[in-house]
Amino acid sequence: MYQAKDWEHGVYVGATMGSATTAAASGEVGKLRRDPMSMLPFIGYNAGDYFSHWLQMGEKFAEPPAIFHVNWFRLDGQGKFLWPGFGQNMRVLRWIIERVRGEVGAVDSPLGSVPKKEDIDWSGLEFPDAQWDELMAVDAEKIRFQATEPNELFDRIGDRLPPELDKQRKQLASE
After folding, report:
1. Is 98 helix (H, G, I), strand (E, B) or coil?
2. HSE-up of residue 143 (Cα within 13 Å, Cβ side)
3. What is the distance between the alpha carbons of residues 50 and 32, in angstroms, rounded to a whole number?
4. Is 21:29 a contact under the CB 8 Å cutoff?
5. What is the pLDDT along the chain (175 residues), one digit of tens a residue?
6. Taking a C-beta distance cutoff of 8 angstroms, is the pair 40, 25 a contact?
7. I want to staple 82 with a disulfide (CB 3.0 to 4.6 A). Which of 20, 31, 110, 135 is the partner?
8. How far apart are CA 115 and CA 83, in angstroms?
């Protein structure tokens, strides 16, 4: 979970974000693919035009909406979920609301701002610091590598890829 960096026009469309294939997306289920928020099967027109539309929408707001990304499905080294389960998601949603209101802070990471453990309400739940640290860890080298590897999504969009996304990818590769 993190608040995305304040990219140009306040819009973030994860240039390196990947997701596993699902029943909605053709291909081998569980294989990593480049598809921000697993939305490609639901975009009814050219994805480059879709991304351009949302980048243009970001320019129309004096105060663009805050954008957050949450990965409830991050696994530890033993293949177990790091987040304690669906019933605990309100803890993060509460942090998001408090973050938008300016009531809690965050820590910078290569992908944006992540919550501090003490800003999450842990009432009634034991959540070890080591597990939190693993959940919030961002591997900057891996991000740089992913930003430089061939990107099937960007290649497929071709000349309709918004330049902002290519710029963002290059910025991630250099951080």
Report:
1. helix
2. 18
3. 22
4. yes
5. 444 444 333 333 344 455 555 544 455 656 666 776 677 888 888 889 999 998 898 889 888 888 888 888 889 999 999 999 999 999 999 999 999 999 999 998 888 889 999 999 999 999 999 999 999 998 888 888 888 887 888 888 899 999 998 888 888 888 7
6. yes
7. 135
8. 14
Among 37, 2, 7, 55, which residue's Cα sits nearest to residue 169?
7
Residues 46 and 160: their CA atoms lie apart, in Å, by 8
CA distance 38 to 40: 6
**Ordered structural domains, the chain, with CATH:** 2-174 (3.90.228.20)
CA distance 61 to 49: 19
Residue 54 tokens, joined = 């949302």
What is the reported pTM? 0.71
Tally Cβ neighbours within 10 Å of residue 76.
12
Residues 27 and 33 sit within 8 Å (Cβ to Cβ): yes
| Side chain identity, residue 134 | E
CA 133 to chain centre: 18
Write out the DSSP string of 17-72: --EE--TTSSSSTT-EE--GGG-GGG--S-HHHHHHHHHHHHHT-SSPPP-EE--T
